[in-house]
Amino acid sequence: MRKIIAPSLLSSNLAFLYRDIEMLNKSEADWFHIDIMDSSFVSNISFGFLFTKYVKKYAHKPMDVHLMILQPEQYIEQLKACGADHLHIHYEACIHLNKTIFSIKKNGMKVGVAVNPHTPVFLLQDIINDIDFVLLMSVNPGYSGQKFIQKTYQKLEDIKNLILKTDSSALIEVDGGINLENSSLLFQNGADILVVGTTIFSDSNPKEIIHRMKLGY
């Protein structure tokens, strides 16, 4: 079973961003997770493309970029140029989802489709074999530090069953409200990747938190 940890830079100390990037480079973290928000699809504004390009300059691990924006298809080539390795788009934000998925692939990035807590995962059945990741939002998107939504466990089971039924190779990523208590349960219930923000960056020993999550305790 895979246990991939993708720390979310939304919770990092931006005044000491380089320090946090270097810490993650030296940790057991697998990816860097970057949230890009537009204040339209979600109510918050976060990082932009130049931020992604800056992180790429110093990060030694893959860049996992999550677009919480409307019309994400307009920015695919720009994000590739900024160094994104994985690009997640929201089911709820894409009118032409299939076309956008293949545009991301054409630009040499792995592609994920994110679903909000209220969106049933059976809606992904027509594209589950075309994507690399399913990103389950376990909080309402927009802000870090929110409480984990317990219904995520049922959605995790549902998407795992869909993946097995269709013989898809998609990995399951979970994002929001993840801590030491629920991380092991999420891995046990089929998650492959956990996006973790506050729990890592608010601790005095973030590398130890990452280590414990990888080991499952």
Automatic annotation (TrEMBL):
A Pfam family: Ribul_P_3_epim
Enzyme's top EC category: isomerase
Keywords, in A-Z order: Carbohydrate metabolism, Cobalt, Isomerase, Manganese, Metal-binding, Zinc
Gene Ontology biological process terms, A to Z: pentose catabolic process; pentose-phosphate shunt
Pathway: Carbohydrate degradation
Cellular component terms (Gene Ontology): cytoplasm
Record note on cofactor: Binds 1 divalent metal cation per subunit.
Catalysed reactions, semicolon-separated: D-ribulose 5-phosphate = D-xylulose 5-phosphate
NCBIfam families to which the protein is assigned, alphabetical: PRK05581.1-4, rpe
The protein's role, per its UniProt record: Catalyzes the reversible epimerization of D-ribulose 5-phosphate to D-xylulose 5-phosphate.
Family the entry assigns: Belongs to the ribulose-phosphate 3-epimerase family.
Protein name: Ribulose-phosphate 3-epimerase
